[in-house]
Design brief:
Blueprint (H helix, E strand, L loop, with lengths): L1 H6 L5 H8 L4 H26 L3 H24 L7 H25 L4 H25 L3 H4 L3 H4 L7 H20 L1 H9 L1 H6 L4 H18 L1 H20 L6 H25 L5 H19 L5 H32 L3 H4 L6 E2 H7 L4 H13 L3 E3 L4 E4 L1 H24 L7 H8 L5 H11 L12 H5 L6
Antiparallel strand pairs: 1-3, 2-3
Helix pairs in contact: 3-9, 3-12, 3-13, 3-14, 4-5, 4-6, 4-12, 4-13, 5-6, 5-12, 9-12, 12-13, 13-14, 13-15, 14-15, 16-20, 20-21, 20-22
């Protein structure tokens, strides 16, 4: 039946426009409440992710279920209806704090690792919660109380008061992260240094866990305890693909969370059969997929492009060094003659020097020719231009500096040093090159490029 509805589903464009423009009151309440929750979850989740405690949010969300059930039973036994939202959230908070405390106690006082401790607490607390929920259901009051909404969420029926509560809690969490930004940064990246400097690391860590508890509790009714952990993990994970700066990651993560809540609420309003919490999480997952693919800092495309550029730069450096060393061999006059770019180097000599294919070598030569670094010199031969000779001399100089350093200080045999130098030389910084110069050739102010250590090691052998 549901599949038939999906196949025969058509868009009611007036209703869709009303949803997209937030003209409907209920849609506006749900969308803004979900957006506020996503914003706070993304901001707090950034520090939780960097602290490597993302799964602790999972344990926390599941640990709130016994508190909800116990709070309902206590309020019902006291003569109330058990529907007080403040009482249920208080029970969820106390139970969640107890769950986190149990995880930390197990980790600190036993040899059990954190992932195992989280699994133990999650399973035990959720099992106890489900058992208590079964007791309440058998009493015939569970559905009336709407306790199941805390498990799966009920964002579609969010009231204005609940949205206001979410907005206030989210604003408080975001403000706390802004005020404690420096302390939370220290906690995430170097808590040992902070402790040595006298910072109250345990207190800061406790405040972070308190923020996680607060965000989780206010989000229970919107997306439910099962999917609340997704809002704490997915937006910061998506933001990590876009930037290397913490403040930017916090802003992007908050934006991803808010956009997830907004889009999820709108899509849920367009398709009433879909649960809001699940759609919000799916919207966050879609943003994560886009970030994974297109993220400017760590996305698949960006990393592929960066790798391609590095490979081209390395190939260019290998070509220039090969031309320079072949020029040395042709003239026999060393660097001063080679620097003028006069010697002709046959393509066959370059093919014999490195493990290039003929197609790849000619492609690199053509690219270098277009860039003005080499020029054709007769039939199937090339020579360095003035600019190419300068670049080739610099590349060869850095390579041989690194070779000499490895031979003298790393006990690398001259017959093997070229391979080891090739693996590292392409990432040497200018500071490292200056340091190598100061240590190896400071006594030679006329230094251009050191001779090949291979030739020195073989007493006049080939390069």
């Amino acid at each position: 039946m549901f599949l038939a509805d999906v196949i025969n589903w058509s868009v009611d464009w007036p209703a869709a426009w009303a949803v997209l423009t937030l003209r409907d009151y209920n849609t506006r309440v749900v969308a803004l409440g979900a957006a506020c929750l996503g914003l706070a979850s993304g901001i707090v989740g950034t520090f939780v992710l960097l602290r490597r405690r993302s799964l602790l949010g999972d344990a926390l969300s599941h640990a709130t279920l016994p508190g909800i059930a116990v709070a309902f039973m206590v309020m019902s036994a006291a003569g109330g209806t058990g529907k007080s939202l403040s009482g249920l959230l208080l029970g969820a908070t106390l139970s969640g704090v107890l769950g986190v405390a149990c995880v930390l106690m197990i980790v600190h006082h036993t040899r059990i690792k954190q992932d195992a401790a989280i699994g133990i607490v999650l399973g035990v607390f959720f099992g106890v919660g489900m058992a208590l929920m079964g007791i309440i259901q058998s009493a015939g009051t569970g559905h009336a109380a709407g306790l199941s909404s805390f498990i799966y969420g009920r964002a579609a029926s969010m009231l204005a008061g609940e949205a206001l509560l979410i907005a206030i809690g989210s604003a408080a969490a975001a403000l706390a992260c802004a005020v404690l930004f420096k302390e939370l940064t220290l906690l995430c990246f170097d808590p040992g240094f902070g402790g040595a400097q006298g910072w109250p690391i345990m207190l800061i860590d406790s405040l972070l866990m308190a923020l996680v508890v607060g965000v989780t509790v206010i989000g229970l009714q919107a997306v439910g305890l099962i999917m609340m952990v997704a809002l704490l993990v997915i937006p910061p994970a998506a933001a990590r693909f876009w930037t290397e700066r913490l403040w930017a990651m916090v802003l992007i993560s908050g934006g991803c969370g808010a956009l997830s809540g907004l889009l999820g609420a709108m899509l849920s309003a367009l398709t009433p059969r879909l649960p809001s919490g699940a759609v919000i999480v799916l919207a966050a997952s879609a943003l994560f997929g886009v970030s994974l693919l297109l993220g400017g800092a760590r996305g698949i495309v960006a990393r592929a492009v960066a790798g391609w550029r590095v490979a081209r730069r390395i190939a260019r450096q290998h070509l220039l060094r090969a031309l320079y060393e072949c020029s040395e061999g042709v003239t026999g006059a060393g660097a001063s003659q080679a620097a003028r770019g006069a010697p002709r180097v046959p393509v066959a000599a370059l093919l014999a020097l490195r493990s290039w294919s003929d197609f790849r070598l000619r492609g690199e030569l053509e690219r270098a020719r277009r860039d003005g670094l080499v020029r054709r010199a007769g039939d199937d031969a090339y020579e360095l231009t003035g600019a190419g000779a300068v670049a080739a001399r610099r590349v060869t100089r850095n390579h041989r500096l690194w070779e000499l350093y490895l031979i003298r200080h790393a006990d690398i045999a001259p017959s093997h040093v070229d391979r080891d130098a090739d693996e590292v030389e392409h990432v040497l910084s200018q500071e490292m090159i200056a340091e190598l110069e100061a240590e190896l050739v400071a006594d030679d102010p006329q230094f251009v490029a050191p001779p090949s250590p291979h030739r020195l090691a073989t007493d006049g052998g080939g390069t």
